[in-house]
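quick one, three chains, predict together pls
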Amino acid sequence: MEWSGAVSLGAMTQRITRDEVVHVARLARLSLSDAEIDEFTGQLGDILEHAADIEALDVGDVEPTSHPLPMVNVLRPDELRPALDRDLLLSQAPAAEDGQFRVPPILGEEP
Amino acid sequence: MTAHEPSLPEEWELVVGLEVHVELATKTKLFCGCENKFSHIPNTLTCPTCVGLPGSLPVMNEKAVEFAMRLGRALGCEIHPSVMARKNYFYPDMAKDFQTTQYDQPTNADGQLALADGTVVGIERAHIEEDAGKTTHVGGGGRINDATYSLVDYNRAGVPLVEIVSRPDIRTVEHAKAYVSELRDILLAIEVSDAKMEEGSMRVDANVSVRPTGSDELRTRCELKNINSVRSLGRAIEYEARRHVDLYTNGEAPRQETRHWDEEGGRSTAGRSKEDADDYRYFQEPDLVPLSPTAAQIAEIDASMPVLPAARRARLGERSSVADEVIVTVVERGQDGLALGAIEAGADADKVLTRIQNDLAVDDWSAVTGESLAMLIQMETGGELTATQAKQVLGEMAAGEHGGDPKAIAAAHGFEAMESDELETLVDQLIVDHPDEWSRFVGGDDGDRKKMQGFFTGQIMKATQGQADGRAVAQLLGQKSAG
Amino acid sequence: MSALDLASAVRSGERSAVDVIDEHLARIDARDGEINAFNLVTADAAREAAAAVDAAVAAGKDPGPLAGVPIAIKDNMCTTGVATTCSSKILEGWEPPYDATVVQRVATAGAVMVGKTNLDEFAMGSSTENSAFGPTKNPLDTTRVPGGSSGGSAAAVAADFASLSLGSDTGGSIRQPAAFCGLVGMKPTYGAVSRYGLIAFGSSLDQIGPFSKTVAESAALLEAIGGHDPLDSTSIDQPAFDLTSVLDRGVEGMRIGILRELSGGEGGVEGLSADVIARTNEAAAALEKAGATVVEVSVPSATLGLSAYYLVAPAEASSNLSRFDGVRYGLRVDAPTTGEMMTATRTAGFGPEVKRRIMLGTYALSAGYYDAFYGKALKVRTMMLQEFASVYADVDLLLTPTAPTTAFPLGDRTADPMTMYVNDVCTIPSNLVGHPAISVPFGVGDDGLPVGVQLLGPALSEPTIYQAAAALEAAAPGQGSLS
């Protein structure tokens, strides 16, 4: 079956560079092996190549729509609702101590 | 005529913008019905939404929106339709690893804050966002860099905040401090927050840079965090500005970075370098819909706006000619209503304000009314009471003695101003009885004169049981020594 | 026996809900080892719930319109105390402390959950081969995929493990598996069904919807789950649908448009197989015969749907999946620092397709690329909305194939992501614009496997859609579906 709408298998495009893949993986807190970096560079490149039809589009005056729904002002009254049982919440935690979630040392300042 | 920061050399000018995060005093959090309060017991004020459990969704608190708009109007801002946005970054106190905030379409923009001395600081924006949880670092002295592990509490996660960003219009440390206290007064007046820096319901970060005096460039700025009091704010800005000046003077330049203020050590330190100086990848929050305030809502907010501190000061300023500090103090103490009442009842405005400032620094003055204060001032002006007596009567009015009625209080003490010949007779007698002291008063140097004046005044006060009018005494002494 | 007949029998006491459940559990036991529709079979809880239904009936209480009907729930919807994994290692064993709103609503309707069904990990896929717990097989031919991402829910109904099931549809994940398994599958108007408790993939695209053998059952289930939910800000403020009453009305007088760009027309998407196009044309002819007017219409931007979707969905997903960081729930891979722990956890916990989409989404949102990619995709959405609106000024509904082919063999499309993505080409546009769409079985392909045709309508046109779907179902050629 020919999929002429799709890009040919395995074509390496320069849509996204290896360095960009590494950068993006770091932003997303994913660590990739060299083989994975290569693979993803190719695959993401294919997908972005396909999206080139969007990139090339001249949509100057068109407003973006973030949401299919035209609703505004959905608000709730400032009223109390019951909290979650803490033991239940922490029972699912990978590590807990003194009623708190325990994590390894956090290095690096908060942004 | 821009003020110059005195701690900097003449040729360097301070450029400061302040970012203040204010916790809104709503009953519940921004996106869920968890209680918005401080609790010592961690993770008890949480639910799927504020802990960001998979599948949870936010729903906006209408009171938080109202408070945010009220805050914006109190700062003279334009209120705009707005959208919430996601600010994406990974940190364990962020339950969703993104913060829901406002980015390019904030609720409030383009306002200003007038300081007591008339300086105006521009407000760029005041937007709505959610707070993060709290992390505690355990082991190694509690500092983040030495910890053996950390603990996270999400009680505070989701608390509604407004972030107020000023324009970099602040030129002196005193103005920075005044900005914060004026802002606090406004927040209290409009009742949207208890704005306590020490408790974290108002948090101040300072963006500090310097530039050659008179230029309009904006040089590299550093953001200072961990400022926990107004005093610290002053010290931090002063330190940081000098650090920048020193760098430039040595042919170097400050790096754009966030720095941590160390109050104990009296210095700022660089945060860890962030290679990914975070790309927050802002985009519109798809789980919320836009806010579109109506003209009616904004009108309602404007109509119910209380008289703000600047206006309260102005009201007194236009009726009197006392120094600014007097008015500032009276308004700060909340005694301007009382002053206005007394002035409206016919008392002299300057006398009213001075008397309040000097003699009504008490916790509870609710027994004093505008009418009774006016009466007291008139009794003094008309000569029925000396200044000293008036002060005493006011004290007892505040304490509620005799129902706060100045006439009754004065009568109970048997106060009446001394006749001036009575006083003169007394002075003449004392001059006879104390010739050495008198010659020292008449012929001595300034030091002697002062001392002897004190001596004679003291004697007179003893003889009259404090009922003599100090000014009349001084006048008489002066007359007699000249003549 | 249809779900409606079952419910009827249980409500009248003619059949015991426990017997019904036992029957289905026996079938699951016998065959799910092969099919792998379920991540978890909740046998004990199901029997308990069924017993409660029987007790209610015995006590003369109303057990609900779907009393005793066995239902399977896609494993990306939260169920209190019951593992909800999204078929991912990162959530393996996670037990939510709360129910999704739809889960509560089906329980209120009296339906009995028999288990959580398999899906492509985090709903990202079109074949259920991306599951961390092994693929689901198509019950009609176990060498083939059931479609995805709701493949488990589709297989469960196709194999009679449950009468009904719930799936989620972000780009076609209900409709395409329905087509592949010979079922009715429906994606409601965005906002018609609450997303509270649905573990989010593409927040502005996701909707929960029903799988069933017949249109009538689909209508009944949608009636039970739809309607406003105050816990979901994107939920439309309207009551549940009334659909059952319109099912018999037929299509006399309706205008139906064949959407050229998605039906093999010139200038449209390519890769639609000839037999699928043929079945769609036959469906059009059948509708005409039943009294509808069928015309050809054009929505040129429909051809951009795939590209826009593969920017918008991953962008939102990349943010939605940030919360899986090993701190609060799910998998944690330990490391010396929290930052490293987060990275190690996510790296070990997510499968390759999820990683691919997270990176694609992160890239599309990142500084420098937002405008070219994500920003533009949002504009394509606007264009689509406008074009659909003008088309619906002329016709009531649109008709297209649901999927480009019949169910393809396992392993056929896993080597190249793009070949998998094109599965969604006909279904994606309705997700982008938030419009409802249903897939109804209509004949078989050259390989004897079911073909589904799709009816699309404007927002909140569910009654019209179901009306036409019922007519289509009545006119469909006999198929080899199990019933």
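Chain A touches chain B at residues 23, 26-27, 29, 66-67, 69, 71-84, 86, 89-90, 97-111 (CB under 8 Å).
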